[in-house]
From TrEMBL:
InterPro entries in the record: Kinase-like_dom_sf, PP2C, PPM-type-like_dom_sf, PPM-type_phosphatase-like_dom, Prot_kinase_dom, Ser/Thr_kinase_AS
Name of this chain's protein: PPM-type phosphatase domain-containing protein
GO MF, one annotated term: protein kinase activity
Domain of life the protein comes from: Eukaryota
Amino acid sequence: MGPIMKRYREIETCIECSAVTLTLVPDVFYYAQKAVLHPATPLFDQENQTLRPRCERALRRIFLLCDRDMDGALNDTELNDFQVKCFNAPLQPAEIVGVRRVVQEKKKEGVNDLGLTLEGFLFLHTLFIEKGRLETTWSVLRKFGYDDELKIRDDLLPVSSKHAPDQSIEMTIEAVEFLRGIFRLFDINNHGALRPADLDELFSTAPENPWCEAPYRDAAERTTQRNLTLKGFLAEWDLMTLLNPKGSLANLIYVGYGGNPASALRVTRRRTVDRKKQQTERNVFHCLVFGPKDAGKSALLSSFLERPFSAVHNPSRAQCYAANVVDQHGGNKKTLVLQEIPEDGAMKVLSHRESLAAYDVAIFVYDSSNEYSWKRSCEVLVEVARRGEESGYGVPCLLIAAKDDLDPYPMALQDSLAVCEELGIEAPIPVSVKLGETNNVFCRILSAAERPHLSIPETEAGRRRKYFRQLVNHSLLFVSVGAAFTVVGVAAFRAYNARKNSST
C-alpha cells in the first residue's frame, strides 16, 4: 500500500484489518469518523506539504483577532487566552516555554522577544497536521466560527431573507464609517487610493479577494494606475451588499468588523411605499440599462467610471455593472449602480412578474443616428411599461439619445417627442461620450430614482385600466355612501315610530 499512498497523496489513512479476528476493526470506524469530522484535504496540500490558502487565511485572521495589542506577536497572556477559548484549559508556564522552544528550533522567525509570531502560529498548525492531530486545528477553526469550507458559518451572518421583492439591503452608517477607517489604514502612502497589493493585503484574512472576478472586477472607479479610489472602494461594497448581502457581511467580518453583525446592514423601505409617499430613504439605487447592440451602453458605463472613451467596440456578452458615488447639490452622496443588459437579455430580465420590483429606475440607450436602434429601444421601453403596469412595480424611465455627435436620422426628434408624450415621460437626454458631453445624465438618472412617483411610463391600455379602476372605486364609494344613508334613515324612522308609539 505504501507506493499507492505515495502516489495518491489525498488518501489519508490505510488500515489492514480482519472482521474474523477483530484485528483493528475499531480503528476502521475511528478513522472513518475522523475523516468526516476532521478532514485533511481542506487544511493541507499533501502534494506540496503546505497549508492550503483558505486554511492559512483563516488562521491569519484568528491570529490577528488574538493579538489584542496589535504588536504582531502573541505574548504569554494572549497565548493563554487563546488556549482557554479553544480548549477550555489554560497553558502552564512550562508548556508555554515548551511551545516557544519547539517553534524556535524549527522556524527561527516564528518567535521574537514579544512572543509567538504569525509565522510561528502557522508553523504550529502545520506541525499538528503533519503529526495527525487535525482535530486540534479543526477545533480552533470551528471555535472561531468556520464551517467545513473554511467560511464563516451562515448562522453567524444575520441577514434577513424575509423581505418583499421591492426591498433591498444596504450598509448602515456604522458599517460605512468602519470601511472609511479601513481604507485609511491600508492607504499606506496616503495617496487616496488602494493599490492592487493593498487590496490583496486587505482581503488576506478572507477566503479570497471577492473583487477579482465578475461582477465586481472593473465595476468601480480606478485611477490610471489601476488603484481603487475611496469612491470606488465604497461603491464596490455597496454593489456587493446589493447583489450578495450575506457575502458582503461575511467579508466585513473577515476584514475586521467587530461590531454587532446585525447592525451592519439594514433592509430598506418598500419601493411601492416610496411611490405613495413620493420620496425615498435609500442610499443605493439600482438602474437597468437597456438598449440594442452598438447603441453605446458600454461607453456610457465607462464614462460613469470616468474612463477615457475608446473607439474600439467590444460587445458585452453578459450583464455588466458600474457602481459609483454621485455627488448631489447640498453635499449629499448617493451610490448609483448601473446594470447593463445585452440586447438579447432584455426579455430574460423581464421574464417574471416581479422582475422590476428590485430596481429603482430604467434607462433606454439608443444610437440617435440609427432609426433601427431607436425602434428597438422604444419596443423595450413599451414592454417595460406594460410589465410595470401589470405587476404594480412600475419604475421611472428615461430615454438616452447616445452618439449625439453624429447626424440624427430623419424624423428622429419628432418620433422621440411623440413617444415621450404618449407615455408621459421626459424627452430623450442627448449624450456624446466621445466628446465628453454627458449632459449631467447620471445626476438626472439619480434624480429620477429619488422621485419614484414621477417619470413612470403609462401605455394607453394602462390608462384605460387606471380609469376603469377609478370609476369602479367611485361607484363603490357612492354605493357605500348611499347604503350608509339608507341605514341611518331606517334607524331614524324606527326611532321616530318607537317614540310615537310610546307617547300614544
